[in-house]
Amino acid sequence: MAPVQTAFRKAEKKYKRGQPPDLDNAVDLATTAAAANEAVREIKLAYDLETPATIPLQLFSQRRPPAYALRDHPGLLLIPNPFTDEAQRWLARKCLCDCPRPPNRTNLDAFFSLPPESLFELASNSEKSSLPIANRSQDDIQQSDVTLPKEKFYTQPGSPSSLLERQRWCTLGLQYNWNTKEYDRGSSPFDQDLDSLMRAIAIAITRPGDTSDPASGNNYNGNLFESEAGIINYYDERATMAGHVDKTEEKMDAPLISLSIGLSCVYLIGGTTRDTEPTPIVLHSGDVLAMCGESRTAYHGVPLVLADTTPASLSCPNSSANDNAAAAYPEWHYFAKYLEHHRINCNARKCS
Ligand SMILES: O=C(O)CCC(=O)C(=O)O
Ligand SMILES: [Fe+2]
């Protein structure tokens, strides 16, 4: 007898197979006004979204941007892109250059002898982009207690540009072990700017107003938030993330804050079992999603990345006449090329 297919699995299959994707039932605040969308309701932020004093650029375009709660998923909050164009470029640089390098771990460093620079920086440097990067020896790999997958992905040596295409994640702060599903790989300092950005978001989403139904908001005091662990996920146009619950964190009362840069995607949010039918949400570049309260323990995943959806402010930064800061990124074409074909997700969790 064929195994019973859960509602979550069914939705994942629908988006993985659908070509062209059927987005008719997905919540997409970029195409349907929230007022016309029964799945969401607007909430009022009770605190300003403020750029931390230590960050030398204006991160947010409004102090109190529109924010939404999902009617069927108490605690899931969405702030459609509150960032300035310059802030999105700054975030992309953080996620591509500053973070995926030692002492942070990536999916590749157990298998390749990676230099101290990020793969993105090497791939963008004409003198270094074709230098071969060697595999680690079998002994080295065995000592790092990971299993060497058979796919060429991990066995074939390559240049920085070919390895950049194989970079799937990097871990920040407490280092997550994907085999044991524990934070048992030591820790690295969490990027201070990213942490202060995540704290600013945690403060702004504290106890949002209009909570006739408090369960749909967030009762966590954002002043207590600290990014103790984080993951940056890199998706190419074919990449997906299977449904899961993030439950390794010792305490789950703080929001899990998640940012998207580059291509849009379909994000599924379900319930505490796979039997709840998930709601599909289209996440766009710059969107902030916070899994608070009940939704913190809900199944979620990314069954589909949507090609050709990177905003022009990232794929051709001089497109906007009022975007003076674009000139500060003369080498932006490397970023533009990457972001045209990838989605980056950066998320932060408080664990204790
Ligand atoms: O890419 C996303 O938006 C989700 C990432 C996620 O669920 C995770 O890293 O645990
Ligand atoms: Fe997750």
TrEMBL record:
PROSITE patterns found in the cross-reference section: FE2OG_OXY
Database matches in Pfam families: 2OG-FeII_Oxy_2
Reported cofactor(s): Fe(2+)
Region spans: Disordered: 1-22
Gene Ontology process terms (BP): oxidative RNA demethylation
GO cellular component: cytoplasm; nucleus
Keywords: Dioxygenase, Iron, Metal-binding, Oxidoreductase
GO molecular function: broad specificity oxidative DNA demethylase activity; ferrous iron binding; oxidative RNA demethylase activity
Residues involved in Fe cation binding: 244, 246, 300
Domain Fe2OG dioxygenase, first and last residues per copy: 226-352
Co-factor remark: Binds 1 Fe(2+) ion per subunit.
Annotated PANTHER family: ALKYLATED DNA REPAIR PROTEIN ALKB-RELATED, NUCLEIC ACID DIOXYGENASE ALKBH1
Name of the protein described by the UniProt record: Fe2OG dioxygenase domain-containing protein
Source organism phylogeny: Eukaryota, Fungi, Fungi incertae sedis, Zoopagomycota, Kickxellomycotina
